[in-house]
């Protein structure tokens, strides 16, 4: 379905509408609701909500970069949850979607019952780090627009972050590539400029005050995000860190294990 939120049409998929408890999933950069469908197809005990974030999937890709700021995305999500009558929900986010989920929980903690953050970060701590990352994100955004989506995906799927995906079955790799190729270049470029890691404020100083239950999931081959999650778990008052034998995109590389860990956690914190 499509929901008009602050002038942007968001693509939303919902199953098990009659269930009381809702679990909302937010994809990563170049992802969409399709990222989560293999994970959630048998989740009958929850109302499952999949959302295409701005600039991705079937959600609008506005030309105005202001529409893509993290603050605007948080406000859009809050309005979207209100339209769907989701008063208290579990928010699951991967990578960019994990940063967004954490930012939302810090901004609207009364809405969130639990957080599940897969390969996620609270952002970069210093202004210098964010400035350097903004410059890199801007260069990548310019390449996406100038070179087109095929050229970008050819490069993107070969960055070191996704090395562990090269051993996946052909059908899985083809599905990932098709999802990436289906994206709108303007949407991806503006997403980087508006809510990329360089554009986002740091949430490190807010972690100690976030009292809701949090599950951090990382892949042991993803050393950078393993280290980030360990530090996050040490700062959060109610966090658990789980590691799976995978790389960055755990739900893609080990979908059954990821789903089992998340569902067990939700049952324990019901």
TrEMBL record:
Q: Which reaction does it catalyse?
A: 5-enolpyruvoyl-6-hydroxy-2-succinyl-cyclohex-3-ene-1-carboxylate = (1R,6R)-6-hydroxy-2-succinyl-cyclohexa-2,4-diene-1-carboxylate + pyruvate
Q: In which pathway does it act?
A: Quinol/quinone metabolism; menaquinone biosynthesis; Quinol/quinone metabolism; 1,4-dihydroxy-2-naphthoate biosynthesis; 1,4-dihydroxy-2-naphthoate from chorismate: step 3/7
Q: What protein name does the entry list? A: Putative 2-succinyl-6-hydroxy-2,4-cyclohexadiene-1-carboxylate synthase
Q: What family does the entry list?
A: Belongs to the AB hydrolase superfamily. MenH family.
* Gene this chain is encoded by: menH
InterPro entries xrefs: AB_hydrolase_1, AB_hydrolase_fold, Epox_hydrolase-like, SHCHC_synthase_MenH
Q: Name one Pfam family in it.
A: Abhydrolase_1
Reported EC number(s) for this entry are 4.2.99.20
